[in-house]
Amino acid sequence: MCNFAAMITNKTTAKKTAEVLLQINAIKLSPKEPFTWASGWKSPIYCDNRIVLSFPPIRNYIREKIAKHIEKHYGKPDVIAGVATGAIGIGALVAEYLGLPFVYVRPEAKKHGRQNQIEGYIEKGQNVVVVEDLISTGKSSLNAVKALKDAEVNVKGMVAIFSYGFDIANKNFEKEYITLHTLSNYENLLEQALDTHYINKKELETLSQWNANPSEWNAN
Questions:
Q1: Cα separation, 105 vs 148, whole angstroms
Q2: Could you tell me if residue 218 is inside a domain?
Q3: Could you tell me how many helices (H) and strands (E) the chain has, helices first?
Q4: Is 215 helix (H, G, I), strand (E, B) or coil?
Q5: CA 28 to each of CA 10, 33, 97, 100, 198: distance values in angstroms, whole numbers, following the listed order
Q6: Phi and psi at residue 194, in whole multiples of 5°?
Q7: 205 domain residue, yes or no
Q8: Calpha distance 26→62 (Å, rounded)
Q9: Residue 99: its pLDDT value, please?
C-alpha cells in the first residue's frame, strides 16, 4: 500500500538541505520575535526558498537532488510541472537537468487572453511530476495537481524542497492519493539548527510546540 504522508528523500540530504537553507537565510528561525504569516498565524519560522536561485552552488545542489530523486522514484516523466510562483525557477532548472519539457501551474486561470491556468505545452495522457518549493497545508500545491488532472495528465507525484510537517498536509495529500517527497522537513531542520548552535534547547522546545499546534501557538 502506498504511503501518501510526506517522506524525506534521505537523512543525509535532509540535514544538508536544512544546513544550506539556514546558511543563506532562505529559512529563518526567530522564536523570540515571531513572524506573522498571511493567514494571520504567528510563526517562529519563515521560509522563502526562492532565495536558493541567487546562490548557484546551492541551487545546483537542490536541482540535482530533486532530479535524481524523481528518476529514482518516478522514472523519467514526460513533463516537469512547477507550482507558481515559488517553484517556477527551481522546477525549470530540474526540467533542464533532466532534458524534459517544463510547464508551470498558476493558482487560477488568467482572466484574459487564452485564460490558461497551465502555462506551457502539455498533452493528455502525459506523465507529470510536480516540483514545489514549500509545503505548509498542501492546499495550494494540490490545487496545482487538480489543474493538471483536469487537463487529463497523469500526475505521478510531487517533490518539494521543504515541508513544515503539519499533520493537515499529510491528510490532504492522502485524501488526493498524491505521494509527496521532500528534500528536508521541520524535524530535520531543528536537528540541524541545534547541532550547529543556531538554536539552544529552550528555543528547540518553543519551536517544537509551534509545530504541534501552529494555529493556536503564541510566542508569549
A1: 8
A2: no
A3: 7, 11
A4: coil
A5: 23, 11, 29, 33, 10
A6: -70, -45
A7: yes
A8: 13
A9: 98
CA 54 to chain centre: 18
Q: Which residue range is the domain that position 20 belongs to?
A: 7-212
CA Rg value for the chain: 17
Residue with cell 501551474: 105
Contact 106, 82 (CB under 8 A): no
- Mind listing the pLDDT tens digit for each residue in 50-102? 999 999 999 999 999 999 999 999 999 999 999 999 999 999 999 999 999 99
* CA 61/CA 79 separation, integer angstroms: 21
pTM: 0.93
| Dihedral (CA of 195, 199, 201, 205) sign | negative
Measure the CA–CA gap between 93 and 80, rounded to whole angstroms. 10
Residues found in the chain: 220
* Number of domains observed in the structure of the chain: 1
Which residue in the block uniquely carries the three cell numbers 493528455?
124
Peptide bond into 85 cis (omega under 30): yes
The verdict on residue 52 lying in a domain is yes
In angstroms, the first-to-last Cα distance of the chain is 43
